[in-house]
Amino acid sequence: MSLSPEQQAEIDALRANPQQTLRTVAPGMEKHLYLAHPVLDHGFVRVIDYMGDDAAICQAARVSYGKGTKSVQNDEGLIRYLMRHWHSTPFEMCEVKLHVKLPVFVARQWIRHRTANVNEYSARYSILDREFYIPAPEHVAAQSRVNNQGRGEVLQGDEAARVLEILKADSARCYDHYEQMISQDGQQGLARELARMNLPANIYTQWYWKVDLHNLFHFLRLRADAHAQYEIRAYADVICGIVADWVPYAWRAFEDYRMNAASLSAQMVDCVRRMLRGEQVTQENSGMSAREWREFQDIVGL
Length: 302
Known about the structure:
Blueprint lengths: L4 H12 L10 H4 L5 E4 L3 E9 L2 H12 L9 H10 L10 E9 H7 L6 E4 L20 E3 L7 E4 L2 H25 L10 H4 L8 E9 H11 L6 H17 L1 H12 L6 H11 L13 H11 L2
Helix pairs in contact: 3-4, 4-10, 9-10
C-alpha cells in the first residue's frame, strides 16, 4: 500500500484530534475512520465520513410503521424483517464516504454502480504517480474454457514469468513516454489531458465514493461474490469487514438474506414442491432449460 507523506500526515492529524458531537456515532465504525486498509499491491480503502447506524434504519422504518412498533419488535428483528421483505428505503438512511485508491480497469468496473456520488483524481490537472497493479503470480491465469468473462488455470513457470515481464515492461515504458510528453525541460510538451491517453489501464487512480447502505449492499452482493473478478472482489471484501463493524444487525441480515441466500424462479419453486410430494422431477419435465436445471441442481444440492 502506498500512502503519500501528505496523506499519512493528514490521517495522523485527524485521528489525534477527535471532535465532540451530538450526532449518533457507531463505535464499530469510529475505529475505521481515516485509517487506510491495504488492497492489492498499492491500493487502499479508507472511511472519510459516515452517517447513521443500525438504530437509524429502525428509526426510519418506525416513522412509516407508526408509534409503538418497538414494543413488539427489537431492532435486530425489525432489520431482519426489512431485509427479508425487500423494504429498502430505511437502509438508505445510512451513508458512507470512502477514499479508494484502485487500478483504472477496476474503477471502470466499479463505476457501473451508478447509484453513488464520485469525485475522481483528475489527470487533466495533476500528474499521476508511477504506480501500477502487477498481479501476484497466483492470480496470473489463462482464459477460462467455460466462462467467457473469467480466468481459468493459473499460469506456471516460464509462461507466468513471460507474462509478468511484459506487464512490468509495458507499464514502465508507457509511463516513461508519458513523462517525456509532458516534460518541461526546455520543451513545450503535451497537455496533461492528452498525455494521459497513453497510460495503461493498470495505473492507479483515486476517488471519493459516497453511497447509501442500500446501494452499497447491492454493490457488495455482486462484487464480493465468488464469481466476481478477483481484483474488485479484494476491495469488496475489505468493505464487507468495515460494514460488518458499522451496522452489525444489518450486516448479519444481509449475509443471511442476500449474500448466502438463493433466488428461485417460479419453475424452480414448483419443482421443489413436487419433489417434497415425492414426485420424480427431471430436466425434461421441469420446464427449465438445461443450463437453468444445472443451476437448480447446484442450489438444492442434487
